[in-house]
Q: What sequence folds into this?
């Protein structure tokens, strides 16, 4: 079947409506004929279903591919993803978020599309703001949002991105004690054996330095300080105000306040959050801890990112892979004022 | 036993030489008495072995700890590491690289120290240049070099760092073919079915776009181009020179040349290197591939870093953890001119 390459579309005649659209749901009927996107046309050409002419000259696959690559940004990426989805048996339509994908066994006209697929090269930066907007748009119309990332060797990895509101099951965020602590060089120590033991064994805060003294991280310290549980002094005995603590902690760690917002949100929502250093993330998070001797499996790894963050996709990929390899969910806590919003990103098979 | 805090040392009398040095190898004999470092003194005080006075006043543990923290940078970190090593049964001596550690069952005077331990907070940046120098110094005197990283919750993770010269077992780095390829938007496609098949199935290059065409990554393309295996043209048919290719690839990926140096070194030394995107690294590396259908387990993950790189330790921790969780070695290829030097970093239990 002969078709014509015109700008960034391929136009087919009336017979294509019956042969390609009605049987395979390729293209969109227009003015009595059928309009194909460049990826649809390349796919049909590679399967010998259509011939493509440009100004009267027949294009072979290579010629059409080079033309299409010149006429549409990300053409190669889109072709790789489209072809992969077709070969998995999905019906796929071009859309604003690159592709709409129909549920298995369904097709356009039978039911609505279920998935929005957004195509990216591993080299592209992904703005978390745009990602949040895309996920929200998809969730508003009850669609699943999938990122299809094409790596430099043209391998494909699919990520599902969804909003999350994790809830923990801890009944109290901290035990009712009151004790003194010292801000040393970059950590805080509580000295009283009884209060230290209670904070450690009942509140799951810090780490015992020895049988009597408790070492607290900066976020733990500010959280307990802001709730009146500890009084923090410097090494010469002077008590800190909230602002002085924040200022000193921020000098030690530039993103202290952002990290604190996430820590506070996690503790306030009934979780126990501990450092995720061993996993390269800010926190590992437990929904419920009953005994400090028997720490359960932590459910989430949480990375805190600013609202204007741009993901480098290899970094995101590594974080998700690590979380999944230790059977945890990878959650990004996106700063929004003094609160955070959560994005849950996981690798999925299509 | 009474001791005196003087500047950043604690001084004990003659009896300490017999009681602390000769039985436990604490301190260094000086002028008839014993000189203890601050961490040694804090450890001995916490075990009730010594009393510490400052200008005639007896200090309790908290008072001494606050004093020590004011007098020595990283005191808390060093104390955490020292105490941990002592409790594991090691004899430990202060040294230029923080600590020298004696083999199990040995002690100062019996044999030489076996391990140099360098202490870091997770918040400190680690210069790869200094790291390379430290590892070289240690290896020159046949010592193991260990990083002890204290995270914000005072948990300890030990990393062994060593130089590496990985060797692969591939007999030829590429098959002897010659074919045409097109540089599309950000990848290269070879069009000839036979050459494509040979490069893919015998050289383990690229990924088949379909049964005839081969997609190559930018580093693969330049490697094959520089060896005369492929001729690369733009989408309008103009052939690239080596420099034009490098210029275009570098516009697409800022660190292209650095990555190419490592790719070239790995291929030249008999490895097959493929993208490590799914692991968040530049490459995953096979020592030997016999069949593209049955790719074996890849042995290394390789990240390429500039010579003046500064590691953020949580990022390094995540990379090592991920590599270890999929039973691979984590290797950093450090750019040095047009060559690379390798550092192998792994988590170890002490």
A:
């Amino acid at each position: 079947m002969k078709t014509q390459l015109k700008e960034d579309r391929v136009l087919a005649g009336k017979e294509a409506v019956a042969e390609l659209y009605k049987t395979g749901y390729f293209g969109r009927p227009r003015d009595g004929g059928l309009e194909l996107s460049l990826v649809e046309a390349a796919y049909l050409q590679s399967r010998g279903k259509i011939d493509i002419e440009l100004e009267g000259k027949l294009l072979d696959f290579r010629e059409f591919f080079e033309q299409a690559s010149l006429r549409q940004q990300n053409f190669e990426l889109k072709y790789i993803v489209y072809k992969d989805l077709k070969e998995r048996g999905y019906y796929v339509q071009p859309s604003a978020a690159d592709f709409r994908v129909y549920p298995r066994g369904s097709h356009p006209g039978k039911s609505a599309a279920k998935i929005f697929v957004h195509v990216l090269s591993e080299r592209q930066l992904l703005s978390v703001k745009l990602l949040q907007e895309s996920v929200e748009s998809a969730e508003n119309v009850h669609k699943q949002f999938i990122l299809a990332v094409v790596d430099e060797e043209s391998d494909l990895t699919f990520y599902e991105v969804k909003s999350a509101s994790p809830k923990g099951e801890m009944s109290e965020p901290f035990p009712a004690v009151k004790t003194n602590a010292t801000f040393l060089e970059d950590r805080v120590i509580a000295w009283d054996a009884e209060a230290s033991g209670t904070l450690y064994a009942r509140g799951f805060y810090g780490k015992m330095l020895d049988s009597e003294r408790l070492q607290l991280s900066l976020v733990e310290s500010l959280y307990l300080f802001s709730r009146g549980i500890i009084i923090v002094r410097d090494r010469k005995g002077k008590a800190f105000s909230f602002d002085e603590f924040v200022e000193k902690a921020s000098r030690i760690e530039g993103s202290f306040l952002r990290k604190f917002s996430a820590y506070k949100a996690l503790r306030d929502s009934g979780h126990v959050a501990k450092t995720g250093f061993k996993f390269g993330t800010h926190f590992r998070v437990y929904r419920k801890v009953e005994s400090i001797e028997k720490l359960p499996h932590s459910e989430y790894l949480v990375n805190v990112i600013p609202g204007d963050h741009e993901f480098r996709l290899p970094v995101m990929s590594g974080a998700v892979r690590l979380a999944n390899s230790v059977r945890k969910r990878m959650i990004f806590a996106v700063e929004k004022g003094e609160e955070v919003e959560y994005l849950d990103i996981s690798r999925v098979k299509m």
Residues 75-87 of chain B form the longest helix (13 residues).
